[in-house]
Amino acid sequence: MTATTAAHLAPADYEAIARELDALRDEIAADLDERDSAYIHRVIRWQRGLEIGGRALLLASSLPPAWLAGTATLTVAKILENMEIGHNVMHGQWDWMRDPKIHSTTWEWDNVSPADQWKHSHNVVHHTYTNVLGKDNDVGYGILRVSAEQEWSPAHLVQPLVNVLLAVLFEYGVAVHDLELDKVQAGEIDPAETRAKLRAIGRKIRRQWIKDYLAFPLLSGPQFATTLAAGCTANAARNVWAHMIIFCGHFPGDVEVFAADRLDGETKGEWYVRQLLGSANISGGRLLHLMSGNLSHQIEHHLFPDLPSNRYVEIAPRVRALCEKYDLPYHTGPLARQVGSTWKKIVRYAFPGPRTRGERSA
């Protein structure tokens, strides 16, 4: 590993870690039943009810109380759809139900990023190469320097401002993520493939804009402007929340990155340890877990991305105990601390250096 925190592990330790985590995954997978199915159906019903309620309130959006209530309700609905439903359904977490309406191959989320492109950039690339420099495009999303191991350039001086803009427009950043623009510029990707992806993104953006910024505002008649403002606000708030949760799961504190050559001959146990060292959790209650899509359990999600999200809360204590057993860090902390730690990195690494490992988390 690039990191030194796993240097004490012997090959036998990695094998034992793989056996224990494989056994844990098999145990949970074998225990999935109607309780889990009822959970996701219940969340979807609540999400759709909240969206309908929010849209209904916005029919009177010229009244400040109705605007505030409608916008807040619509925002919650969009967060639930994006985080606990869309993200997790497209991971295949509910494919075991064999429900064609709640399946990774059929779900298209309320987001400008086409599902098939997101599944490639996220499920395939990110979850395979988690935090491997030059392989995982989610390390700084290609525009931010979040580690001492990343080369500094003068463009990074403005990255705190760039990160604010990325948060507000996060769904658009996610939408272009699978284009792999660095490879496009290097001529490594067929231009025809890039054009096809751009057309798909354009179609998705058009559908989303018509729904949120034209159709529903028109339904409110003379209150078009206030309903349009509500739709813009709900989408921006959803984007900021998703950005915050995802960044807090990947960049705070002592979360580590890895050199590409460490992939050579990587065993299952080494892959598991890379997920443990390259992820961070957010401590909190049931509401936080729900609204974060259970990505407050980012460590467990990286270990078992296709297990239903509602099971992470029961898996987490056992993963933490395994980390203690093998003297590995288990990165976790309250939301405010993780947000502060993430922003501290973004501001610090906007400037040159440090290049020594001891200063990685400064």
UniProtKB/TrEMBL annotation:
InterPro entries according to UniProt: FA_desaturase_dom, Fatty_acid_desaturase
Domain Fatty acid desaturase: 66-332
Protein name: Acyl-CoA desaturase
Species of origin: Actinomadura vinacea
